[in-house]
Amino acid sequence: MENAVQQESGTQRYAFLGPVGTFTEAALVQVAPAAQHVPMPDVVTALDAVRRGDAERAVVPIENSVEGGVSATLDALTSGDPLVVVGEALVEISFALVAAPGTRLEDVRHVATHPHAWAQCRGTLARLAPGVVHVPATSTAAGAALLAEHAASGDADELGFEAALVAAHSAAAHGLDVLARGVEDNVGAVTRFVVVARPGTVPPRTGADKTTLLVHLPHNDAGSLLTMLEQFAARGVNLSRIESRPIGDALGRYAFSIDAEGHLADERLAAALTGLHRVCPFVLFLGSYPRADGVATAVAPGTSDDAFTSAQEWVAGLRRGLT
Ligand SMILES: O=C(O)C(=O)Cc1ccccc1
């Protein structure tokens, strides 16, 4: 079976946040090593490639243990033609500082990298190279690629940065000098990546699944957040992530991006969804998929599939006049 999946992914095109050497590529290698890997310049372009049918899947970062949610991904997933999450991968994150051959640490005043990479290394870099300034890049590897290109053509001075922060595992591959390794502020940080597809079939339930949703609050008064959360709590559904994103039409209007433990096929999760549908003006189902850590969903007493179906049968019986 695994071979069949592998073979199938071997013929599939997976768009990812490129270029080669990003953490996202490392996540893609975990989930579909045999697939065709198609680097994209940013998350929006990677997701749009799936929307257009130019790729079957996209792999993009969604959350990390230091900086929290990746807003660009959360927003791009939920605007435009529908997409769903069909899988996830976890990558341990460690960074290296690279520069054109011959550059000394004391020459480094500006460092190009992805904003999430900068946020995870700024403390260490401030100690290593006091006064150093961040130059935003679309990815870690994109900054390094520019450095390598300009070093080769001898016009590195025009670039506006002297170094790049890259994934430690690919530091050697850029053809640059490694000035420092392990420059992250938090050792053991992890980033979570999602595999995204066009809506269609939902991956089968494994017993260790997550469901991703976007929800608008029922009404804007005291207790509206609680009303939404009660839909999960009353059915014993635990949340592994919840964060607010501005809806964008007016100040103070927020949507909630949520990961719930469980699968659409779980009765307790289905019951939570029906509750949300009743009380919230907008609920977007963004997929049920196996958890990367394989941790089985905890089932509180009275929230198993059997408990839900026997309760439904009892009510059905009452309606038929049985007592
Ligand atoms: O830029 C990359 O290499 C990415 O894959 C995005 C990213 C950046 C920083 C931490 C985790 C993922």
From TrEMBL:
Gene: pheA
Site (Essential for prephenate dehydratase activity): residue numbering on this chain: T191
SUPFAM superfamilies on file: ACT-like, Periplasmic binding protein-like II
EC number(s) recorded for this UniProt protein: 4.2.1.51
Catalytic reactions of this protein: prephenate + H(+) = 3-phenylpyruvate + CO2 + H2O
CC annotations in GO: cytoplasm
InterPro entries: ACT-like_dom_sf, ACT_dom, Chor_mutase/pphenate_deHydtase, Preph_deHydtase, Preph_deHydtase_CS
Protein's pathway: Amino-acid biosynthesis; L-phenylalanine biosynthesis; phenylpyruvate from prephenate: step 1/1
Protein name: Prephenate dehydratase
PROSITE patterns named in the record: ACT (PS51671), PREPHENATE_DEHYDR_2 (PS00858), PREPHENATE_DEHYDR_3 (PS51171)
Pfam families: PDT
The entry's keywords: Amino-acid biosynthesis, Aromatic amino acid biosynthesis, Lyase, Phenylalanine biosynthesis
